[in-house]
Write a structure and sequence with these properties.
mainly alpha
């Protein structure tokens, strides 16, 4: 049994927020097309995001090997799942939403 009050602490493990992708895309050249802007922005932060995820998963694997308290092991396992889902969402869904928003801004529609 894992107390649900521990789950919010999994946000402490994520050190590379989604705002880095947004900042990277917003700093690209405005004259580029939207797909090129998103591709250039994600390529500038993609490697660091992937390396950060691998380091976080390595630390989690180490914690799972060293800690014998079941509640903490379940928390770390939950955190691993949350990290992988967050990474997948950031690289797929969030990039799509960001591209749609850039197209909206490009057209000038503020609706």
């Amino acid at each position: 049994y894992t107390p649900r009050t521990l789950f919010p602490y999994t946000t402490l493990f994520r050190s590379h927020p989604t705002s880095c992708s947004t900042k990277a895309v917003s700093k690209t050249d405005v004259s580029l097309s939207v797909p090129d802007r998103v591709a250039e922005g994600l390529s500038s932060v993609g490697l660091s995001t992937s390396v950060t995820l691998l380091v976080e998963l390595s630390v989690a694997a180490l914690l799972l090997q060293l800690i014998s308290i079941e509640v903490i092991r379940q928390l770390v396992t939950f955190t691993v799942v949350a990290l992988v889902v967050d990474y997948g969402m950031e690289m797929t869904f969030f990039a799509t939403v960001l591209a749609i928003d850039l197209q909206r801004l490009e057209v000038g529609c503020l609706c």
